Amino acid sequence: MDDMSRRTALKTGAATLAGGLAGPATGAARGPEVVVVGAGVFGAWTARHLQRLGRRVLLLDAWGPAHARASSGGESRLTRGSYGADEIYTRFAWESLAEWKSLSSRAGLPILHQAGVLFFFPTREDYVARTIEVHRRLALPTEVLERAAMARRFPQIDFEGIEIGLYEPAFGALMARRAVQTLVAEFVAAGGEYRRAAVAPPEAGEGPLERIILSDGTALRAARFVFACGPWLPKLFPSLLGSRIFPTRQEVFFFAPPAGGSDFQVGRLPGWADFNGGDIFYGFPDLEGRGFKIAHDAHGPPMDPDGGDRIPSPAALAEVRAFMERRFPAMRGRPLSEARVCQYENSANGDFLVDFHPSRPNVLLVGAGSGHGFKHGPAVGRYAAALLEGRLAHAEPRFALAAKSERQNRAVH
Length: 413
Ligand SMILES: Cc1cc2nc3c(=O)[nH]c(=O)nc-3n(C[C@H](O)[C@H](O)[C@H](O)COP(=O)(O)OP(=O)(O)OC[C@H]3O[C@@H](n4cnc5c(N)ncnc54)[C@H](O)[C@@H]3O)c2cc1C
Prior knowledge:
Blueprint (H helix, E strand, L loop, with lengths): L1 H8 L24 E4 L3 H12 L4 E5 L14 E4 L7 H20 L5 E2 L3 E5 L4 H12 L5 E4 H7 L10 E5 L3 E4 H14 L3 E4 L14 E3 L5 E3 L2 E4 L5 H4 L1 H4 L4 E10 L15 E4 L6 E4 L7 E5 L17 H14 L8 E11 L6 E4 L6 E5 L9 H12 L25
Parallel strand pairs: 1-2, 1-12, 2-9, 5-14, 12-19
Antiparallel strand pairs: 3-8, 4-8, 5-7, 6-7, 10-11, 13-16, 13-17, 14-15, 15-16, 18-19
Helix pairs in contact: 2-6, 2-10, 3-10
This protein binds flavin-adenine dinucleotide.
The site of flavin-adenine dinucleotide (FAD) has 37 residues, from helix 2, strand 2, strand 3, strand 13 and strand 17.
């Protein structure tokens, strides 16, 4: 990000000037019209879409795009279209895939590895039937595979106890940190401003928010503000979101595949998820030599994104190893090469939050990716930008603040 910081540093003087939304954007000299706080996948795509709509946008982040503790940080994220009956997320994933492919084609290194994704299930449960219905309606190229067909095609996986699978050849793995950093670089190259700065919790009150205060004491004015601060949103809006977004501790592990051979490479092993009665385990092929990645999708204990402990636990390691060695016999005894602790920022049921602050009509809140948000970044950003600009034909009720319960009851998988 050094080049990007240098380029944007030349422009940030203008960022402290007041902005206004009247009239078309005519260059950086008049200051930003919109300030987007948070350069994770949601904030970066929101900034990029606002820029495409002609807005002068300043994007801020306290630690940098997709930094190590951000929910968008780390190596990789699965993208898939299987969401049971939750068609909104299938649509968002499909729409986003086109953007990811396009970004990938412009980047120097791959952002999307189109490895395919195999989601497999112990029984033909409702989730499978609903997914098939939605995919047929949307004409997604999803294949329904019986156990024997899966076993022939993916001999690395032991399908004991599995009846059926959904194979999505168009989807795969996104290189998370690289994706967000590439996007922010593209935003800057197209004339956007990015600055590394921390924003204090906005002043309480009614009516339009006039300014935000940065950690160096600078006041920054703009006509509109977007807060896409992931697991930090409850800290910025404690009374509003402190009991509506639940950051949880999540652990991911990388193991070295067997030496030589290509059984665990892209092209042989797809991204995969074992539905496991709703208690999902998921993983990736050996992407770019990082190793075979595996994680348990169950929500961990509450996690403070600043002070939370990031040392992987022996219990989680033992759990994923046991699962991996059962489902992937060739991985038995393979050495751990890396482990990371991250956090999900869950809404009560897994639906995203994209809505205006109830007493600050020029403040848009974007977050609650809930452990599945990354793949949807392009569509969430497009939706957020359209909502902010008053261009949405129909607001999605599931993304409304009013739909965010204070009692956790996960429903979206
Ligand atoms: C382990 C793990 C695995 C996951 N797997 C998948 C997957 O396979 N597929 C998938 O689609 N999704 C997955 N997700 C979910 C997805 O990664 C997240 O939903 C998504 O990245 C959230 O992005 P965000 O932009 O909302 O938050 P973040 O990436 O956390 O971005 C928020 C940004 O706001 C900044 N910020 C916060 N406070 C301030 C402040 N006061 N001033 C300035 N900046 C501030 C932070 O520095 C941060 O960069 C996974 C998440 C985790 C943790």
